[in-house]
TrEMBL record:
Residues of the signal peptide: none
Annotated PANTHER family: DNA POLYMERASE DELTA SUBUNIT 4 (PTHR14303)
GO cellular component, one term: delta DNA polymerase complex
InterPro entries named in the record: DNA_pol_delta_4
Phylogenetic placement of the source organism: Eukaryota, Metazoa, Chordata, Craniata, Vertebrata
Molecular function GO labels: DNA-directed DNA polymerase activity
GO biological process, one term: DNA synthesis involved in DNA repair
Record's protein name: DPOD4 polymerase
Origin superkingdom: Eukaryota
Amino acid sequence: LRRFDLAWEYGPCTGITRLQRWERAQALGLSPPKRVRDALLEHGDNPDVTYRWVQPPQ
């Protein structure tokens, strides 16, 4: 999921869930990885999966 978060070719990720970003990329014909969608649907009730990865402060 982190690789998907950091991949600029799928567009910005601010203010939307990972699944919304995946669906937008798919609608635009950008061919996002199907395994990302599968993971998001399988773990959709887990906020650590639903929302993008953020580097914790150090």
